[in-house]
Design a protein that fits this description.
The chain has a 5-stranded parallel beta sheet with strand order 2-1-3-4-5, with helices on both faces. The protein contains 6 helices and 5 strands; from the N terminus they run βαβαβαβαβαα. α1 packs across α5 (119-127). α4 links the parallel β4 (89-93) and β5 (111-114). By secondary structure, the chain is α/β, with parallel strands linked by helices. Helices cover 38% and strands 18% of the residues. The radius of gyration is 14 Å and the shape is globular.
Length: 144
Amino acid sequence: MRTTRILLIEDDEADAWLLQKALQECEADTQIYLIGEGQAALDFLTQPYSDNPFTTPDLIFLDLSLPKKSGMQVLQELKSNPRLRYIPVIILTHTVFEDEVDQTYHYKASAYLTKPVCAREVADIIKYQHLFAPTASQKRFNIV
């Protein structure tokens, strides 16, 4: 099994550490790249001709409460970008407001997790990440 590249967009160092700890506990073969602001994450992901493998990660964990640009705005822009729209985005938040959950799924989030995340939740996401990714025919017909 190959290494899963994860982009973690999180401004809270404690929450970032907890997610990294959960990944270690589930013994997933992962590499994590951390960015602490919404706009900085979008700038990083949309840079042209980058040889950094994290500009096309396998998974994105996205906090909704970010400085400069909110997680919801980041999600919208990711899913409207033809190169990035197929990357599964896992929402991380401390709150569970029904409208917010609905809105993230409307913008094509793959999952919604409340913080702090546990190792079991993270392990399941890593293990079943292929279920979040669209098939070739869905990409071809822009169904996603």
